Amino acid sequence: MTPPTEAGAYAGRGLHKAVVEAIALQIFDGTYEEGDILDLPRLMADLDVSQTVLREAIKVLTAKGLLDARQKRGTFVRPRDDWNLLDPDVLRWKLDSGAPHDFFADLYDLRLAIEPAAAADAAMRRTDEDLAALDAALAAMASYDNDPVLAVRADASFHVALLRASGNRFFSQLHRVIIPALIERDRQVHAGPHDDPLPDHAAVVDRIRDGDPDGAHAAMLRLLELSMRDHP
Q1: Residues in contact with 211: Cβ distance below 8 Å, sequence separation at least 6, in sequence order
Q2: Using a CB cutoff of 8 Å and minimum separation of 24, what contacts does 140-148 make?
Q3: DSSP string, the chain
Q4: Whose C-alpha in 31, 75, 81, 217 is 20 to 30 A from the C-alpha of 172?
Q5: CB neighbour list of residue 116: distance below 8 Å, 6 or more residues apart
Q6: Using an 8 Å Cβ cutoff, are 136 and 165 in contact?
Q7: Contact by Cβ (8 Å): 128, 218
Q8: Each residue's pLDDT tens digit in the chain (232 positions)?
Q9: What is the signed CA dihedral for 138, 140, 146, 152, rounded to 10 degrees?
Q10: Distance between CA 210 and CA 123 in Å, rounded?
Q11: Rounded distance, CA 172 to CA 134, Å?
């Protein structure tokens, strides 16, 4: 299984996509702060686009929670708390702009709430294909131990496989949030010496293979505690 290495880029094409990306960059780099009104004529001139193209780009960013429009006020940047971090593009823009340490603390809380439950569900619902994907991820982690980039990708594959093995369609979709943020955290954090993570990952798979939901839940909790200790 090949995990996503980053949240997927906006699916639009050509000029439309470029305008969406350009405006998003200006929001995330602070050119436009929360509550600021977009200077639409200036944007049209700077980006050399028509009013129609700009309007469509604004619709995209409004749907993602970044912008809003009011009569007599204009188009403005919404408060950061309203930005949809579950949207792959918003998450990508956030990570690219530099996520603060507490962002990854929030990620840990999310994983703590989701992944042990996903492991327990996987113990009851996993298919032979799910076990094969988990085993392949473990094998890749063992093979790539000396290559930090490939090791991170192998770890990502494990967590994608785990979420999918849960059989819960909502858990499965959360890989779009957890994996890109997890990869960025590992890229930013230069951890010192730490325990070999492979046995703890293997313990989760063993409990899933045994059909032991309580054991899988507990093993996943231990794995997350190890991750938090090694990547504070």
Answers
A1: 123, 124
A2: 141/197, 141/198, 141/201, 142/198, 145/196, 145/198, 148/186
A3: ----SSPPPPS--HHHHHHHHHHHHHHHTTSS-TTPBP-HHHHHHHHT--HHHHHHHHHHHHHTTSEEEETTTEEEEPPGGGS-TTSHHHHHHHHHH---HHHHHHHHHHHHHHHHHHHHHHHHH--HHHHHHHHHHHHHHHHTTT-HHHHHHHHHHHHHHHHHHT--HHHHHTHHHHHHHHHHHHHH----S---SHHHHHHHHHHHHTT-HHHHHHHHHHHHHHHHHH--
A4: 81
A5: 216, 217, 218, 220, 221, 224
A6: no
A7: no
A8: 444 444 444 545 688 899 999 999 999 999 999 999 999 999 999 999 999 999 999 999 999 999 999 988 899 999 999 999 889 899 999 988 887 778 888 989 999 999 999 999 999 999 999 999 999 999 999 998 777 788 888 999 999 999 999 999 999 999 988 888 888 877 665 455 566 889 999 999 999 999 999 999 999 999 999 888 766 5
A9: -80
A10: 7
A11: 14
97 contact partners, CB below 8 Å, separation of at least 6: 28, 29
The amino acid present at 178, given as its one-letter code, is I
> Which amino acid is present at 180?
P
Backbone angles phi, psi at 70, to 5 degrees: -135, 145
- Give the tokens for residue 51: 């009013």
- Other Cβ atoms within 10 Å of 99 Cβ, number: 17
